[in-house]
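G., the chain you wanted modeled:
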Amino acid sequence: MLTRHPRIAAAAALLLGFLLIWAAPLAGLAAAGRPLAAYLAFPPRTAQVEQAPFSWGALFLLSLPLAFAAVLYGIALYRARPRPSRIRKSCPWWGWLGLALIAAGWALAWSEAVAPEWRRHTFTPLWLGYVLTMNALAYRRGGEALLTHRTGLLLALFPASAFFWWLFEHLNRFAGNWYYTGIVAAGDWDYFLQATLPFSSVLPAVASTWEWLKTFPRFAALGEGMPKLQVSVPAMVSILVGLFALAGIGVWPQALFGLLWLAPLPVLLGLQKLLLGETLLAPLAQGDWRPLLQPAAAALVCGFFWELWNWGSLAQWHYAVPYVQRFHLFEMPLLGYAGYLPFGVECALAVDLVNRAARA
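Predicted structure as tokens:
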């Protein structure tokens, strides 16, 4: 445990978590005696793959966790005791800039009259506009925002986000749940550079949305007063459970595809506990479920806009999800939105570790 050196411990948890999550599915393949060469190519790319056909039984079973989550949010909303907030400020100039970037990026992304060279590169300005707008809305409603009060953290999240999402691109090589079309790249490095800029907006977008949502009194209280949840899982057990699950994705991708979004959680939580002495979810033991419920909801909000703006874009992603590839909202199968909930918690863990590592 490196609790006396929290910055070093947080940086170590980030780096070690990245390496372990990256290596685990490769270890699963190696243990099964399968070749690794195709999964080591740089950068990670996923072609369209043939997945298991739609199954009503699988849809029902996989919908049960989502139904549980809906009930949990209903209970949390009922128990929330909002405290009124009267802070109101005018929208800063950079908020209007953000809205202008969204309007221009959206129009360029969806307009067939625009040259393809322009349409293919609209994701970054569009989502930079989203980040600015979310920060402006948070500042207007609450008097502060990441951009104004934790500028260093917001800036640090951009490079961290690029590494973070490239890791999920690597995991998707095993699961094959999404693939890209409409991208023109001269080579691997060109593809890497084109993709890295959009990937760098993921964590800033989720973190900024979370900050904005917290300016609403009921959302700010969402998760307070919940039952106390004391989970005393040893750190090494948590890490090993996550690693075995990730290894399983490499061997049985169609059966375990959902673990792509779940398995990194116990790894990161275990490393946080091992190296820092506590986890982001420690408040659950006191009945405070905000670190779990709030970032999950923030990621779901971002997910809606990711899927909306992707829908009409030239360079876009498509889904190939086993068993549930039906009932779409934009390109995403409806049940696929459930993946944004654990992903939001993983984003919160990454943001917390970046914050600790970058803190002066």
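The longest helix spans residues 6-31.

Shout if anything looks off.
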